[in-house]
Amino acid sequence: MIKDKSIFIKNIYYMLSYAFTTLNQSNFENVAKEEFENMHNLLASILAKGIGQQLKQGLYREYLNKKENIVVMRGKIDMPGTIKNKIARQQVLSCDYDDLSENNLLNQILKTTVMILLRLSKVDSEHKDALKKEMLFFSNVDTIEPTSIRWTAIRFCRNNQTYRMLISICQLILEGMLLTTEEGEYKLASFVDEQRMCRLYEKFILEYYIKEFPMLSASASQIPWALDDGIGTMLPVMQSDITLSHGERVLIIDAKYYSHTTQVQYNVHTLHSNNLYQIFAYVKNKDAQLGSKPHEVSGMLLYARTDETIQPDNIYQMSGNKISVKTLDLNCEFPEIAAQLNLITREHFGI
């Protein structure tokens, strides 16, 4: 899919920069200027700089419940445990207490990810050295089994908001790139899988339009079903990837990151049928929602371009709405990628 891997890796950084605005801060400037031969070095560099910044602010700590035998009372006395100690002629108290500790899930995820990166031959020594120095401050933090992490259960609060980007990078590494060998050891795949890349791809496009086109209303909005009787039991949620609106015009974009932009049967290339049905349903239901007031709703399937010979570039007029199928070339310098995205807004909104 990728002809020039170095250009693609550099663009992954820009995609991450829009997806996580933290990467636009000054301490990540050098990352944008570096040349990376693989994804491992890029993510290791981002993680090293991010953890370094977090260390300057201090590691997040939270109260964890502990139970131990101590000479001086702390917290609450655990009577059964204390009686057991007395019977065993141990002159100590069994106590339950809360301890403000850095050995919490967020720091455990950071340390676990770094320890895996340190064992990879594809990560250059300069990035490993930076990560090793930072791990000296994690001596009281445990590592955990990567497959045991429940990512959806992680919650951020005012005290740990600075961890949001770091944990997302860790998730990209541990969940999106991590493979388990038969021997039980871990290694990283060359690139993240289609599913995770698709999430990053669609988030990048949305955040690009939010930042670069503030005059547009850009969101990943839900589209209500146009129901005659109002009964929508068991109907799936219609969740758009990107919805752009300006004045009377609305453009719904479905971002797709596939290894093949078309489906082939008997040497005949056609569009992915499910994708086309989906964007058509989004457009028609959005059109119905806006009712009789003046409006224009269009839809677009925006695929990440592959190196296949046949690439979709079509515009269809369907039941009064325009549905287009385009590709976005990620295998070029970022200003060219931006120009492609800008052209979409110019064609649809005149902006």
UniProtKB/TrEMBL annotation:
Coiled coil location: none
EC number: 3.1.21.-
Keywords, ordered alphabetically: Endonuclease, Hydrolase, Nuclease
InterPro entries: McrC, McrC_bac
Keyword Plastid attached: no
Protein name stated in the entry: 5-methylcytosine-specific restriction endonuclease system specificity protein McrC
Species annotation: Caproicibacterium amylolyticum
Molecular-function annotations in GO: endonuclease activity; hydrolase activity
Hydrolase is among the record's keywords: yes
Biological process annotations from GO: DNA restriction-modification system
Enzyme class: hydrolase
